[in-house]
């Protein structure tokens, strides 16, 4: 799970993810009760990529979503896992290097706001818990739009604020009483305490749809999942 803090610089956010890299996967599995795998598979399904596709996994972190995407596109495809955290990318590379047969993934250290790819390059894209982390969400969406081929889709998974008050209250309780104490036990209180305030600043699903349409996408739909505590923004380029 990756954040967007208006008061944080890009270098500060990168440093944060470098620090949490060693326990990132462990915490994701524990805090989501393993459900993050299901949500990531849903994002891949909604990205509509198939065998032979050239795909982008933006803000790839330690690479689990990129690995799932690589299995989807197969040996004739290619996945570019992009992140600006060298510590996260080092873990992603190490994990994939142990796999046989090798997966078709290229790891790229780059800024999500200035992607080193040509226009109309990708057949599809995914992004898991990264949109909250960028310092300029509209620019990030424009970069995804720019690098997708006409007709391609992107699926962007992230936290969501439930519309129903009981679920919103539960989400707030869970973050405060489960997530932060667990992170504190690992010496990462500050690094994970950011999730709740970042969620308050994060655009709602309908706002994300509006931003995507302004970025140029022909269509955009936000799907609440996990009782509304998570969401997937699916966008399509004409």
Which range does the strand content fall in? 15-25%
Order of helices and strands: HHHEHEHEEHEHHHHEE
CATH topology: Rossmann fold
Structural class: alpha/beta
Proportion of helical residues: 40-55%
Q: Judging by the overall fold, what is the CATH architecture?
A: 3-Layer(aba) Sandwich
Distance between the termini: 29 Å
The CATH superfamily is identified as Vaccinia Virus protein VP39
Shape category: globular
Strand order, main sheet: write it out: 3-2-1-4-5-7-6
Mean pLDDT: 90
CATH class: Alpha Beta
Describe this entry's structure for a reader:
The chain is an alpha/beta fold and 238 residues long. Helices cover 45% and strands 21% of the residues. The protein has a single domain (10-161, 203-236), classed as 3-Layer(aba) Sandwich (Rossmann fold). The protein has a 7-stranded mixed β-sheet with strand order 3-2-1-4-5-7-6, sandwiched between helices. α3 packs across α4 (64-73). The radius of gyration is 17 Å and the shape is globular.
